Amino acid sequence: MVGAGAAGLYTALRAAREGASVTLVSATPLAESSSWWAQGGLAAALSAPDSPELHLRDTVLAGRDAVRESAARVLCEEAPEAVRDLIRLGVRFDADHDGRLALGLEGGHSTRRIVHAGGAATGRRLVRQLSAVVAEHPAIEVLEGRRAIGLLSDRERCVGVRLDDGHVIASGATVLATGGAAALWARSTNPSVAVGGGLLLAFAAGAALADLELLQFHPTAVVGGNGADGFLVTEAVRGEGALLLDGRGERFVDELAPRDEVARAVQRQMIQTDARSVDLDMRTVDPALFPNVVSALRRAGIDPERELVPVAPAAHYMMGGIATDLEARATLAGLYAVGECSCTGLHGANRLASNSLSECFVFGARAARSAAAQPEPDRAAAAELVELAERRSAPEAPAAISPSSREALWRYAGLERDAEGLHRLLADEHPLVRLIARSALTRTESRGAHQRTDVPERDPRFDGRHVTVRDGGEPAIEPWT
Known about the structure:
By secondary structure, the protein is an alpha+beta fold.
């Protein structure tokens, strides 16, 4: 198990529950993963007016006819049980005065179905509690401060992982939960480590990647401020009445429209007025609902109870990733992917708010069941692969993405892009930047988070289709069932 965010922690616990012995590799100490910063909640149909079918309808609508409906149905049907299981594990979600779960409303949802913990501190509470349970579990060995540098693969099966300290872990099943890649872009809500390292590991080992052109931009990231630039102001504040205002103090968008629509509306407003930001008006929102957001803004010198908050879009969530089936299996046997590094297809071309945390737990449970059933690894074959890997040259990916590559992605593969700019990215030094450009050039249309000014209309030939790329081949357009 590589990665100790919400997806990795939960998958490790579920695999141990299935009787597996688990080694969990974490680049950081437990409870310090990227998931710590997650403000969004879990989307689940838990109220009487709601249902999995209604949740599914909202997911498909937000995804702009690119959703893999079978994956979305799995999520919507199994998310309520995931919430109940987290409660059994000790996670304390926000409740109303009667002790029932307090459900929030976010963009694209037709009813209240977002479960939060500590207002906008959901990621913090989840990771803290799951880390505590993992640390005490006798069937889980935790290796902190280690990084995976390669998968043991003959390009037909993955039999383990190599770590940066020379340690080799042979395994019947290897699960990647390494997070997303939104920090590749110059302006991002993500921590700097979210640069798609797990995607490159899987790709180098022979697994397919998919939908790399579909990167969601969050519309309300802080601009300027004392250390707060890029700080995400959760969409839930708009669910509680916060408004987006132009320079004249007037609304210009439905604040609860899907994220791609709101982000583009904000950008258009900024271009029309030659402004660096628009204003988020939180003055009518109860600050007790979002204590960590309010405190972060105040530390930056912004009092959201009295002042408008300057915001603009920022790269936020990679909807593409390692292509997986409904059991989280990658196209390379023995390899699994969960969380943001995976691509189940359920998000389509525009992720419905708070479906991503639900995805971590729903597909983490499925991955655990399947991975735990895999046979023990062939240790002799693993040793041969280690020897082969040691004879190979260093991996192609640079140690870190350069500022010039990040600026190039923001400029040529931002909220809007075109063929000319994307072709420029094909010569970039970073391999994942080149793969993103190749995928974006293959999708010759505009849909959801992928907006090409040179082909501004949606092409029905891409309905239900996913752009997949494999090492040594050109991107392919594939239907997924």
